[in-house]
Specification:
This protein has 312 residues and is mainly α. The chain has one domain (2-311): Rhodopsin 7-helix transmembrane proteins (Rhopdopsin 7-helix transmembrane proteins, Up-down Bundle). The protein is built from 11 helices and 3 strands. The protein has helices spanning 24-51, 58-75, 78-85, 94-127, 132-135, 138-164, 181-185, 193-227, 231-261, 269-293, 296-311; strands at 11-14, 91-93, 173-174. The chain has a 3-stranded mixed beta sheet with strand order 2-1-3. One of its GO terms (cellular component) is plasma membrane.
Length: 312
């Protein structure tokens, strides 16, 4: 009954990325270039893995899916951010905001699960190389893929349904350049207790659970590498997982700051936005560079694709 005295919010106003209106055109050009780099960096890797038969292995299948997730993740945020940079009033509809939340949550969890599965793949390849074909056969890969999508779908729909049950009566200013759960929950005029509980549960089981699984996998990998007698053998074995380890380090260091150490005071909003910009644009841009520059098979496939496109 009390909600009838309020006007229901149908759109949100975003604070934007920077508080410098005179530099919006400069920022638009910069982030358009960065977003282009994300797409043009990840898309060729997907193409190379799809059309190059030697890359039709579980490890590269996971890398291709990671590249797809990076493109989807950035595409859910950056185009709307670029649009708002050209407008004086930066708005997003309630439906658009909820859709952005859904895609962002799905992408984050998918990347989290993919990195864990890739850690397991490297563990099997290094610690049990003779049984790799048995432990990472087609059937097991399909099961891993189905399980990953099931977890992503269930988690995202639970959070989505909980947000849809919230009332937004004003204010409608999102102190961010995209929709994220903490900023949206802060604007609700109804109880967000269940939402916060589910977010906490997701952090514990998804973030901490997958982090521990990754740590366990790499603990066994490091132990196995240390048992190798020759330094050349150690270096060669470590090189097979160094790219993935670097991506994992970038991902978890950013997620850890966002989830557990991010300052909540209004005076630290610039820091919050800078960190968010890092994991929505910078990390997806670096991932293909890490995998392509440190992987001979991917570089060879990219050379063949570029060579065939020039000759045709």
């Amino acid at each position: 009954m009390e909600h009838s005295n309020h006007t229901r919010v149908t759109e949100f106003i975003m604070q934007g990325l920077f508080d410098h209106p005179h530099h919006q055109g400069l920022f638009f050009g910069l982030f358009l270039c960065l977003y282009t780099a994300v797409v043009m960096g990840n898309f060729p890797i997907i193409v190379a893995i799809v059309i190059h038969p030697p890359l039709h292995t579980p490890m590269y299948l996971f890398i291709a899916n990671l590249a797809r997730v990076d493109i989807l993740f950035s595409s859910s945020v950056v185009p709307k951010m670029l649009e708002n940079l050209l407008q004086e009033k930066k708005t997003i509809s309630l439906a658009g905001c909820i859709m952005q939340l859904f895609v962002l949550t799905s992408s984050l969890v998918m990347e989290l699960l993919l990195l864990t599965v890739m850690s397991y793949d490297r563990y099997v390849a290094i610690c049990h190389p003779l049984h790799y074909v048995k432990f990472m056969n087609k059937e097991i890969c399909i099961r891993l893929a189905v399980s990953t999508w099931a977890v992503v779908t269930i988690n995202s729909f639970v959070h989505l349904l909980l947000v849809l049950h919230l009332d937004f009566c004003g204010p409608n200013l999102i102190q961010h350049f995209f929709c994220e759960f903490p900023a949206i929950l802060a604007l609700s005029c109804s109880s967000t207790y269940i939402n916060e509980i589910m977010m906490f549960v997701a952090d514990i089981f998804l973030v901490m659970g997958n982090f521990l699984l990754t740590i366990v996998s790499y603990s066994f990998i490091i132990i196995t590498i240390l048992k190798i007698q020759s330094s050349k053998g150690k270096q060669k074995t470590f090189s097979t997982c160094s790219s993935h380890l670097l991506v994992v380090t970038l991902y978890y260091s950013t997620i850890g700051f966002i989830t557990y150490m991010r300052p909540s005071s209004s005076g630290c909003m610039d820091t919050n936005r800078a960190i968010s910009l890092f994991y929505t644009v910078i990390t997806p841009m670096f991932n293909p560079i890490i995998y392509s520059l440190r992987n001979k098979e991917v570089k060879e496939a990219l050379r063949k694709i570029l060579g065939s496109s020039r000759t045709s």
